[in-house]
Protein backbone atom coordinates (compact mmCIF):
# COMPACT_ATOMS: atom_id res chain seq x y z
CA UNK A 1 0.00 0.00 0.00
CA UNK A 2 2.86 2.41 0.76
CA UNK A 3 4.22 1.81 -2.74
CA UNK A 4 0.83 2.85 -4.16
CA UNK A 5 1.15 6.21 -2.36
CA UNK A 6 4.61 6.69 -3.85
CA UNK A 7 3.24 5.82 -7.29
CA UNK A 8 0.46 8.37 -6.80
CA UNK A 9 2.99 11.12 -5.99
CA UNK A 10 5.01 10.24 -9.09
CA UNK A 11 1.92 10.34 -11.33
CA UNK A 12 0.68 13.65 -9.89
CA UNK A 13 4.06 15.32 -10.45
CA UNK A 14 4.39 13.98 -14.00
CA UNK A 15 0.81 14.86 -14.98
CA UNK A 16 0.74 18.38 -13.53
CA UNK A 17 4.30 19.63 -13.98
CA UNK A 18 4.12 20.56 -17.64
CA UNK A 19 7.38 18.72 -18.33
CA UNK A 20 7.54 15.72 -20.70
CA UNK A 21 6.60 12.35 -19.21
CA UNK A 22 9.36 10.14 -17.86
CA UNK A 23 11.32 12.76 -15.90
CA UNK A 24 10.25 11.40 -12.47
CA UNK A 25 11.75 8.24 -10.99
CA UNK A 26 11.06 6.40 -7.73
CA UNK A 27 14.40 5.44 -6.21
CA UNK A 28 16.18 4.71 -2.96
CA UNK A 29 18.75 6.94 -1.33
CA UNK A 30 20.93 3.92 -0.53
CA UNK A 31 24.51 4.64 -1.53
CA UNK A 32 24.57 1.59 -3.82
CA UNK A 33 21.72 2.97 -5.94
CA UNK A 34 22.61 5.07 -8.98
CA UNK A 35 20.61 8.26 -9.38
CA UNK A 36 19.85 8.75 -13.07
CA UNK A 37 20.97 12.15 -14.35
CA UNK A 38 18.16 14.37 -15.62
CA UNK A 39 15.51 12.82 -13.37
CA UNK A 40 13.57 13.90 -10.30
CA UNK A 41 14.07 11.20 -7.68
CA UNK A 42 11.33 10.48 -5.15
CA UNK A 43 12.80 8.67 -2.16
CA UNK A 44 10.84 7.43 0.87
CA UNK A 45 13.04 7.78 3.93
CA UNK A 46 10.73 7.45 6.97
CA UNK A 47 7.39 5.97 8.01
CA UNK A 48 5.73 7.17 11.23
CA UNK A 49 2.42 6.71 12.98
CA UNK A 50 0.11 9.70 12.45
CA UNK A 51 -0.09 11.38 15.86
CA UNK A 52 -3.55 12.89 15.36
CA UNK A 53 -5.27 9.57 14.71
CA UNK A 54 -3.27 7.49 17.19
CA UNK A 55 -6.06 7.41 19.77
CA UNK A 56 -9.03 7.21 17.44
CA UNK A 57 -12.07 5.41 18.90
CA UNK A 58 -13.09 1.88 17.98
CA UNK A 59 -14.90 1.51 14.66
CA UNK A 60 -18.30 -0.18 14.41
CA UNK A 61 -18.33 -3.08 11.92
CA UNK A 62 -20.79 -5.95 11.31
CA UNK A 63 -18.50 -8.16 13.45
CA UNK A 64 -18.58 -5.69 16.35
CA UNK A 65 -16.20 -2.94 17.32
CA UNK A 66 -12.58 -3.11 16.21
CA UNK A 67 -9.49 -0.97 16.18
CA UNK A 68 -9.45 1.77 13.57
CA UNK A 69 -7.02 1.58 10.63
CA UNK A 70 -3.45 2.69 11.35
CA UNK A 71 -2.76 6.22 10.12
CA UNK A 72 0.74 6.89 8.81
CA UNK A 73 2.88 9.82 7.78
CA UNK A 74 5.30 8.96 4.97
CA UNK A 75 8.36 11.20 4.66
CA UNK A 76 9.90 11.75 1.24
CA UNK A 77 12.91 13.57 -0.11
CA UNK A 78 12.72 14.73 -3.73
CA UNK A 79 15.85 15.75 -5.56
CA UNK A 80 16.76 16.41 -9.17
CA UNK A 81 20.04 15.23 -10.64
CA UNK A 82 21.37 17.47 -13.32
CA UNK A 83 22.53 21.02 -13.94
CA UNK A 84 22.01 23.27 -10.88
CA UNK A 85 19.73 25.87 -12.49
CA UNK A 86 17.62 23.11 -14.03
CA UNK A 87 17.42 21.50 -10.58
CA UNK A 88 16.03 24.73 -9.13
CA UNK A 89 13.49 24.99 -11.96
CA UNK A 90 12.28 21.40 -11.54
CA UNK A 91 12.07 21.57 -7.74
CA UNK A 92 10.14 24.85 -8.00
CA UNK A 93 7.64 23.12 -10.29
CA UNK A 94 7.21 20.26 -7.80
CA UNK A 95 6.59 22.81 -5.04
CA UNK A 96 4.00 24.54 -7.25
CA UNK A 97 2.21 21.26 -7.96
CA UNK A 98 1.81 20.34 -4.29
CA UNK A 99 1.12 23.91 -3.19
CA UNK A 100 -1.70 24.07 -5.76
CA UNK A 101 -3.14 20.68 -4.76
CA UNK A 102 -2.06 19.73 -1.23
CA UNK A 103 -4.99 17.34 -0.91
CA UNK A 104 -5.12 14.56 -3.46
CA UNK A 105 -8.61 13.13 -3.91
CA UNK A 106 -10.10 10.13 -5.67
CA UNK A 107 -9.28 11.48 -9.15
CA UNK A 108 -5.58 11.69 -8.26
CA UNK A 109 -5.12 8.56 -6.16
CA UNK A 110 -3.80 5.30 -7.59
CA UNK A 111 -6.79 2.98 -8.27
CA UNK A 112 -5.27 0.34 -5.96
CA UNK A 113 -5.66 2.79 -3.03
CA UNK A 114 -9.16 4.06 -3.74
CA UNK A 115 -11.09 1.36 -1.86
CA UNK A 116 -9.04 2.08 1.28
CA UNK A 117 -8.55 5.84 1.40
CA UNK A 118 -10.40 8.96 0.32
CA UNK A 119 -7.54 11.46 0.19
CA UNK A 120 -3.85 12.09 0.78
CA UNK A 121 -2.54 15.30 2.27
CA UNK A 122 0.89 16.42 1.08
CA UNK A 123 2.79 18.88 3.32
CA UNK A 124 6.12 20.54 2.69
CA UNK A 125 8.48 19.71 5.57
CA UNK A 126 11.23 21.97 6.88
CA UNK A 127 13.92 19.78 8.44
CA UNK A 128 16.70 21.59 10.28
CA UNK A 129 20.13 21.79 8.63
CA UNK A 130 21.33 19.10 11.06
CA UNK A 131 18.44 16.79 10.12
CA UNK A 132 19.09 17.27 6.39
CA UNK A 133 22.81 16.65 6.81
CA UNK A 134 22.09 13.60 8.98
CA UNK A 135 19.78 12.16 6.34
CA UNK A 136 22.28 12.48 3.50
CA UNK A 137 25.15 11.26 5.69
CA UNK A 138 23.14 8.23 6.85
CA UNK A 139 22.66 7.19 3.22
CA UNK A 140 26.32 7.83 2.36
CA UNK A 141 25.57 10.50 -0.23
CA UNK A 142 26.70 14.07 -0.81
CA UNK A 143 24.17 16.68 0.25
CA UNK A 144 21.83 17.72 -2.60
CA UNK A 145 19.35 20.53 -3.08
CA UNK A 146 16.01 18.86 -2.27
CA UNK A 147 12.41 19.19 -1.20
CA UNK A 148 11.07 17.26 1.79
CA UNK A 149 7.42 16.22 2.02
CA UNK A 150 5.22 14.43 4.54
CA UNK A 151 2.21 12.57 3.16
CA UNK A 152 -0.68 11.99 5.57
CA UNK A 153 -2.88 9.86 6.25
CA UNK A 154 -2.43 6.41 4.91
CA UNK A 155 -4.79 4.10 6.81
CA UNK A 156 -3.56 0.52 6.96
CA UNK A 157 -6.41 -1.90 7.70
CA UNK A 158 -6.10 -4.63 10.33
CA UNK A 159 -4.68 -7.97 9.24
CA UNK A 160 -7.04 -9.89 11.49
CA UNK A 161 -10.44 -8.71 12.57
CA UNK A 162 -11.05 -9.42 16.23
CA UNK A 163 -14.34 -7.60 16.67
CA UNK A 164 -15.44 -6.79 20.19
CA UNK A 165 -19.18 -7.23 20.59
CA UNK A 166 -21.48 -4.41 21.65
CA UNK A 167 -22.57 -3.92 25.25
CA UNK A 168 -25.97 -5.56 25.48
CA UNK A 169 -26.83 -4.97 29.13
CA UNK A 170 -25.72 -2.68 31.95
CA UNK A 171 -26.19 -4.10 35.43
CA UNK A 172 -25.11 -2.73 38.78
CA UNK A 173 -25.38 -4.92 41.85
CA UNK A 174 -24.87 -3.91 45.45
CA UNK A 175 -23.59 -6.08 48.19
CA UNK A 176 -23.47 -5.70 51.93
CA UNK A 177 -20.14 -4.67 53.37
CA UNK A 178 -19.44 -6.05 56.83
CA UNK A 179 -17.05 -4.16 58.89
TrEMBL record:
Listed Pfam families: Pvc16_N (PF14065)
Lineage top rank: taxon: Bacteria
InterPro entries: Pvc16_N
Pvc16 N-terminal domain boundaries: 4-156
Entry protein name: DUF4255 domain-containing protein
Organism expressing this protein natively: Streptomyces luteolifulvus
Amino acid sequence: MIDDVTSTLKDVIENRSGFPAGWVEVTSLDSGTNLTVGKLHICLYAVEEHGHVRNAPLVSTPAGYERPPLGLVLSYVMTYTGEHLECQKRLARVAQVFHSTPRLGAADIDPALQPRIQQLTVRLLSPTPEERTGLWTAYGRDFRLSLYYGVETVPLPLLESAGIDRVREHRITYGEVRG
